[in-house]
Specification:
- By secondary structure, the chain is of the alpha+beta class.
- The protein has seven helices and eleven strands.
- A five-stranded antiparallel beta sheet has the order 9-8-7-10-11.
- Helix 2 crosses helix 3 and helix 5 packs across helix 6.
- The longest helix is centred in the C-terminal third of the chain and has 35 residues.
- It starts with a helix and ends with a helix.
- 35% of the residues are buried.
Protein backbone atom coordinates (compact mmCIF):
# COMPACT_ATOMS: atom_id res chain seq x y z
CA UNK A 1 0.00 0.00 0.00
CA UNK A 2 1.61 3.33 -1.07
CA UNK A 3 1.92 6.03 1.55
CA UNK A 4 -0.22 9.16 1.45
CA UNK A 5 2.86 11.18 0.45
CA UNK A 6 3.56 8.79 -2.46
CA UNK A 7 -0.07 8.99 -3.57
CA UNK A 8 -0.06 12.80 -3.51
CA UNK A 9 3.22 12.83 -5.44
CA UNK A 10 1.75 10.60 -8.14
CA UNK A 11 -1.23 12.92 -8.57
CA UNK A 12 1.06 15.95 -8.86
CA UNK A 13 2.86 14.49 -11.85
CA UNK A 14 -0.22 13.57 -13.87
CA UNK A 15 0.08 16.22 -16.56
CA UNK A 16 -1.17 14.33 -19.63
CA UNK A 17 -3.86 16.16 -21.60
CA UNK A 18 -7.39 15.17 -20.60
CA UNK A 19 -8.62 15.83 -24.12
CA UNK A 20 -5.97 13.54 -25.62
CA UNK A 21 -6.78 10.80 -23.14
CA UNK A 22 -10.52 11.07 -23.69
CA UNK A 23 -10.12 10.97 -27.46
CA UNK A 24 -7.84 7.95 -27.18
CA UNK A 25 -10.29 6.29 -24.82
CA UNK A 26 -13.03 6.65 -27.42
CA UNK A 27 -10.78 5.12 -30.03
CA UNK A 28 -10.11 1.92 -28.16
CA UNK A 29 -11.92 1.33 -24.87
CA UNK A 30 -15.13 -0.42 -25.87
CA UNK A 31 -14.89 0.93 -29.44
CA UNK A 32 -18.45 2.26 -29.18
CA UNK A 33 -18.26 4.01 -25.83
CA UNK A 34 -19.91 7.41 -25.51
CA UNK A 35 -17.88 10.57 -25.02
CA UNK A 36 -19.35 11.03 -21.53
CA UNK A 37 -18.40 7.51 -20.52
CA UNK A 38 -14.93 7.94 -22.00
CA UNK A 39 -14.35 11.09 -19.95
CA UNK A 40 -15.70 9.37 -16.83
CA UNK A 41 -13.26 6.50 -17.23
CA UNK A 42 -10.33 8.83 -17.76
CA UNK A 43 -11.17 10.95 -14.74
CA UNK A 44 -11.65 7.87 -12.58
CA UNK A 45 -8.25 6.53 -13.61
CA UNK A 46 -6.59 9.87 -12.87
CA UNK A 47 -8.22 10.17 -9.44
CA UNK A 48 -8.17 6.52 -8.37
CA UNK A 49 -5.67 4.53 -10.47
CA UNK A 50 -5.47 0.85 -9.61
CA UNK A 51 -1.73 0.89 -10.45
CA UNK A 52 0.92 3.23 -11.84
CA UNK A 53 2.99 1.73 -14.65
CA UNK A 54 6.27 3.39 -15.65
CA UNK A 55 7.31 3.36 -19.32
CA UNK A 56 10.73 4.84 -20.06
CA UNK A 57 12.51 6.47 -21.87
CA UNK A 58 9.49 6.90 -24.15
CA UNK A 59 5.79 6.92 -23.35
CA UNK A 60 3.53 4.52 -25.30
CA UNK A 61 1.14 6.24 -27.68
CA UNK A 62 -2.61 5.79 -27.66
CA UNK A 63 -2.50 3.14 -30.39
CA UNK A 64 -0.13 0.78 -28.58
CA UNK A 65 -1.51 -2.40 -27.06
CA UNK A 66 -0.17 -1.61 -23.58
CA UNK A 67 -1.86 1.80 -23.57
CA UNK A 68 -5.18 0.13 -24.26
CA UNK A 69 -4.60 -2.58 -21.67
CA UNK A 70 -3.71 0.02 -19.04
CA UNK A 71 -6.81 2.04 -19.87
CA UNK A 72 -9.00 -1.05 -19.83
CA UNK A 73 -7.78 -1.94 -16.32
CA UNK A 74 -7.66 1.59 -14.90
CA UNK A 75 -3.85 1.78 -14.67
CA UNK A 76 -2.05 5.11 -14.85
CA UNK A 77 0.83 5.44 -17.34
CA UNK A 78 3.85 7.34 -16.04
CA UNK A 79 6.95 8.52 -17.89
CA UNK A 80 8.79 9.89 -14.85
CA UNK A 81 11.29 7.40 -13.36
CA UNK A 82 11.81 9.59 -10.29
CA UNK A 83 8.25 8.92 -9.14
CA UNK A 84 6.84 5.80 -7.41
CA UNK A 85 5.46 3.06 -9.67
CA UNK A 86 4.01 -0.43 -9.35
CA UNK A 87 5.67 -1.87 -12.47
CA UNK A 88 8.20 -0.70 -15.06
CA UNK A 89 8.89 -1.22 -18.76
CA UNK A 90 11.83 -0.20 -20.91
CA UNK A 91 9.96 1.37 -23.83
CA UNK A 92 11.80 2.55 -26.94
CA UNK A 93 10.04 2.48 -30.29
CA UNK A 94 13.30 2.02 -32.22
CA UNK A 95 15.23 -0.81 -33.85
CA UNK A 96 18.33 -0.41 -31.68
CA UNK A 97 17.60 0.72 -28.14
CA UNK A 98 19.80 3.29 -26.45
CA UNK A 99 20.01 1.41 -23.17
CA UNK A 100 19.44 4.75 -21.44
CA UNK A 101 19.87 4.20 -17.69
CA UNK A 102 17.07 4.90 -15.25
CA UNK A 103 16.41 3.98 -11.67
CA UNK A 104 14.22 0.98 -12.48
CA UNK A 105 16.10 0.03 -15.64
CA UNK A 106 17.83 -3.07 -14.29
CA UNK A 107 14.51 -4.69 -13.34
CA UNK A 108 12.16 -3.28 -16.00
CA UNK A 109 10.30 -5.54 -18.42
CA UNK A 110 12.26 -5.83 -21.70
CA UNK A 111 15.29 -4.31 -19.97
CA UNK A 112 17.73 -6.28 -22.15
CA UNK A 113 15.72 -6.33 -25.39
CA UNK A 114 17.59 -3.56 -27.23
CA UNK A 115 18.06 -5.04 -30.72
CA UNK A 116 15.10 -6.05 -32.89
CA UNK A 117 16.82 -5.57 -36.25
CA UNK A 118 15.90 -8.09 -38.95
CA UNK A 119 19.46 -9.44 -38.97
CA UNK A 120 19.55 -10.04 -35.23
CA UNK A 121 16.07 -11.56 -35.23
CA UNK A 122 16.99 -13.99 -38.03
CA UNK A 123 20.28 -14.92 -36.33
CA UNK A 124 18.48 -15.75 -33.07
CA UNK A 125 15.81 -17.59 -35.05
CA UNK A 126 18.41 -19.83 -36.72
CA UNK A 127 20.07 -20.59 -33.38
CA UNK A 128 16.78 -21.61 -31.74
CA UNK A 129 14.95 -23.32 -34.60
CA UNK A 130 17.95 -24.95 -36.26
CA UNK A 131 17.18 -23.74 -39.79
CA UNK A 132 17.80 -20.45 -41.58
CA UNK A 133 15.63 -17.66 -42.88
CA UNK A 134 18.50 -15.51 -44.21
CA UNK A 135 20.16 -16.47 -47.51
CA UNK A 136 23.25 -15.37 -49.40
CA UNK A 137 21.75 -13.47 -52.35
CA UNK A 138 24.89 -14.04 -54.48
CA UNK A 139 24.58 -17.85 -54.36
CA UNK A 140 20.95 -18.66 -53.50
CA UNK A 141 18.77 -19.67 -56.47
CA UNK A 142 15.13 -18.65 -56.41
CA UNK A 143 12.86 -15.94 -55.05
CA UNK A 144 14.16 -13.90 -52.12
CA UNK A 145 12.58 -11.16 -50.00
CA UNK A 146 14.78 -8.07 -49.80
CA UNK A 147 13.88 -5.69 -46.94
CA UNK A 148 15.41 -3.08 -44.68
CA UNK A 149 17.21 -4.24 -41.56
CA UNK A 150 15.33 -1.52 -39.66
CA UNK A 151 12.01 -2.23 -37.97
CA UNK A 152 8.59 -1.11 -39.29
CA UNK A 153 9.72 0.03 -42.75
CA UNK A 154 7.28 -2.22 -44.67
CA UNK A 155 9.50 -2.14 -47.75
CA UNK A 156 9.75 -5.84 -48.58
CA UNK A 157 10.11 -6.78 -52.24
CA UNK A 158 10.57 -10.04 -54.09
CA UNK A 159 13.70 -10.42 -56.22
CA UNK A 160 15.15 -13.29 -58.20
CA UNK A 161 18.53 -14.55 -57.00
CA UNK A 162 21.43 -14.98 -57.38
CA UNK A 163 22.49 -11.37 -57.91
CA UNK A 164 25.96 -9.86 -58.41
CA UNK A 165 27.83 -8.95 -55.24
CA UNK A 166 27.88 -5.33 -56.42
CA UNK A 167 24.06 -5.28 -56.30
CA UNK A 168 23.83 -6.34 -52.65
CA UNK A 169 22.47 -3.28 -50.83
CA UNK A 170 23.94 -2.29 -47.46
CA UNK A 171 21.40 -2.01 -44.65
CA UNK A 172 19.15 -4.68 -46.14
CA UNK A 173 18.60 -8.36 -45.40
CA UNK A 174 17.87 -11.10 -47.91
CA UNK A 175 15.56 -13.85 -46.75
CA UNK A 176 13.92 -16.95 -48.08
CA UNK A 177 10.62 -16.16 -49.78
CA UNK A 178 8.26 -18.12 -47.52
CA UNK A 179 5.26 -19.44 -49.44
CA UNK A 180 2.49 -18.35 -47.10
CA UNK A 181 -0.36 -18.44 -49.59
CA UNK A 182 -3.77 -19.46 -48.27
CA UNK A 183 -5.04 -22.91 -49.19
CA UNK A 184 -8.72 -21.98 -49.32
CA UNK A 185 -8.67 -18.52 -50.93
CA UNK A 186 -6.62 -16.15 -53.01
CA UNK A 187 -4.14 -14.22 -50.92
CA UNK A 188 -1.69 -14.67 -48.07
CA UNK A 189 -1.90 -15.18 -44.33
CA UNK A 190 0.41 -14.81 -41.36
CA UNK A 191 0.34 -15.28 -37.61
CA UNK A 192 0.76 -12.37 -35.24
CA UNK A 193 1.85 -13.91 -31.94
CA UNK A 194 1.59 -11.81 -28.73
CA UNK A 195 4.23 -12.66 -26.11
CA UNK A 196 3.70 -11.96 -22.39
CA UNK A 197 6.64 -13.50 -20.55
CA UNK A 198 6.21 -17.30 -20.74
CA UNK A 199 2.68 -16.99 -22.15
CA UNK A 200 1.10 -16.82 -25.62
CA UNK A 201 -2.48 -15.77 -24.77
CA UNK A 202 -3.91 -15.71 -28.31
CA UNK A 203 -2.82 -15.66 -31.93
CA UNK A 204 -4.09 -13.30 -34.63
CA UNK A 205 -4.40 -14.79 -38.10
CA UNK A 206 -4.03 -11.88 -40.52
CA UNK A 207 -4.93 -11.95 -44.21
CA UNK A 208 -3.51 -10.01 -47.15
CA UNK A 209 -4.90 -9.78 -50.69
CA UNK A 210 -3.04 -11.51 -53.50
CA UNK A 211 -1.75 -8.23 -54.96
CA UNK A 212 -0.45 -6.84 -51.62
CA UNK A 213 1.79 -9.48 -50.07
CA UNK A 214 3.79 -6.92 -48.05
CA UNK A 215 1.17 -4.20 -47.64
CA UNK A 216 -2.31 -3.82 -46.17
CA UNK A 217 -4.41 -6.49 -44.45
CA UNK A 218 -7.97 -7.16 -45.49
CA UNK A 219 -9.09 -9.27 -42.52
CA UNK A 220 -8.02 -10.97 -39.30
CA UNK A 221 -9.20 -13.57 -36.79
CA UNK A 222 -8.53 -14.09 -33.08
CA UNK A 223 -7.76 -17.77 -32.44
CA UNK A 224 -6.37 -19.98 -29.71
CA UNK A 225 -2.62 -20.68 -30.03
CA UNK A 226 -3.14 -24.45 -30.05
CA UNK A 227 -5.44 -24.18 -33.09
CA UNK A 228 -2.64 -22.97 -35.37
CA UNK A 229 0.64 -23.84 -33.62
CA UNK A 230 1.78 -27.21 -32.28
CA UNK A 231 3.05 -27.70 -28.73
CA UNK A 232 6.63 -27.87 -30.04
CA UNK A 233 6.19 -24.72 -32.14
CA UNK A 234 4.83 -22.74 -29.20
CA UNK A 235 7.72 -23.94 -27.03
CA UNK A 236 10.20 -22.92 -29.75
CA UNK A 237 8.64 -19.46 -30.07
CA UNK A 238 8.97 -18.92 -26.32
CA UNK A 239 12.57 -20.18 -26.43
CA UNK A 240 13.16 -17.71 -29.26
CA UNK A 241 11.79 -14.72 -27.32
CA UNK A 242 13.77 -15.84 -24.28
CA UNK A 243 16.96 -15.83 -26.39
CA UNK A 244 15.98 -12.44 -27.84
CA UNK A 245 15.39 -11.26 -24.24
CA UNK A 246 11.97 -10.00 -25.27
CA UNK A 247 9.58 -10.44 -22.36
CA UNK A 248 6.80 -8.47 -24.01
CA UNK A 249 6.04 -7.95 -27.68
CA UNK A 250 4.63 -9.55 -30.80
CA UNK A 251 6.09 -11.81 -33.48
CA UNK A 252 5.25 -12.04 -37.17
CA UNK A 253 5.28 -15.72 -38.07
CA UNK A 254 4.84 -17.31 -41.51
CA UNK A 255 4.18 -20.95 -42.30
CA UNK A 256 5.67 -22.27 -45.54
CA UNK A 257 3.37 -24.40 -47.66
CA UNK A 258 6.32 -26.34 -49.03
CA UNK A 259 8.16 -27.52 -45.93
CA UNK A 260 5.40 -26.90 -43.35
CA UNK A 261 7.79 -25.05 -41.05
CA UNK A 262 7.17 -21.75 -39.31
CA UNK A 263 9.50 -18.77 -39.73
CA UNK A 264 9.76 -15.73 -37.45
CA UNK A 265 10.20 -12.82 -39.86
CA UNK A 266 9.83 -9.91 -37.43
CA UNK A 267 9.75 -9.10 -33.72
CA UNK A 268 8.24 -5.95 -32.24
CA UNK A 269 8.71 -4.97 -28.59
CA UNK A 270 6.41 -1.90 -28.79
CA UNK A 271 3.42 -3.27 -30.74
CA UNK A 272 0.35 -1.32 -31.76
CA UNK A 273 -2.98 -2.93 -32.39
CA UNK A 274 -4.29 -5.42 -31.42
CA UNK A 275 -4.24 -5.88 -35.23
CA UNK A 276 -5.02 -4.06 -38.41
CA UNK A 277 -8.07 -5.50 -40.11
CA UNK A 278 -9.89 -6.20 -36.85
CA UNK A 279 -13.53 -5.31 -36.46
CA UNK A 280 -14.33 -3.35 -33.25
CA UNK A 281 -15.74 -6.40 -31.50
CA UNK A 282 -12.58 -8.39 -32.36
CA UNK A 283 -10.39 -5.71 -30.78
CA UNK A 284 -12.47 -5.92 -27.59
CA UNK A 285 -12.21 -9.73 -27.61
CA UNK A 286 -8.44 -9.60 -28.08
CA UNK A 287 -7.85 -7.02 -25.32
CA UNK A 288 -9.92 -9.01 -22.85
CA UNK A 289 -7.98 -12.16 -23.71
CA UNK A 290 -4.65 -10.34 -23.22
CA UNK A 291 -5.46 -8.70 -19.89
CA UNK A 292 -4.73 -11.66 -17.55
CA UNK A 293 -1.34 -12.26 -19.19
CA UNK A 294 -0.54 -8.54 -18.97
CA UNK A 295 -1.44 -8.48 -15.29
CA UNK A 296 0.83 -11.50 -14.69
CA UNK A 297 3.66 -9.64 -16.40
CA UNK A 298 3.03 -6.61 -14.19
CA UNK A 299 3.15 -8.87 -11.15
CA UNK A 300 6.59 -10.11 -12.23
CA UNK A 301 7.79 -6.53 -12.64
CA UNK A 302 6.40 -5.64 -9.20
CA UNK A 303 8.27 -8.60 -7.71
CA UNK A 304 11.53 -7.39 -9.26
CA UNK A 305 10.98 -3.83 -8.07
CA UNK A 306 10.29 -4.99 -4.54
CA UNK A 307 13.40 -7.18 -4.55
CA UNK A 308 15.47 -4.23 -5.78
CA UNK A 309 14.04 -1.97 -3.07
CA UNK A 310 14.88 -4.52 -0.40
CA UNK A 311 18.37 -4.92 -1.79
CA UNK A 312 18.90 -1.15 -1.71
CA UNK A 313 17.57 -0.91 1.83
CA UNK A 314 19.86 -3.74 2.99
CA UNK A 315 22.88 -2.03 1.41
Amino acid sequence: MPSLADTLTRYRYRRTSLVRLANAEQAYAAQRVSRARAWARVLRTMAFPRKTILFYPLRPNAWSVVYKLCSQAGYWISNDPSQPCDAAFRWEDVTHGSGEPFRQGDVAINRYCTDISKKHVSDVFADVFGYDLDVDPTTYRGLVVKKSDENATHDGELIECPIPAADVAPGFVYQKAVDNRRDDAEGFYEYRVPIFGPTIPVVYVKYRPLDAQFKEFNGADVVTPASVLSDDERAQLLAFTDALQMEYGELDVLRDRGDGRIYVVDANNTPTGPARGFRPEQSVEALRALQPAFDALLAESARRLEAARRGSAAA
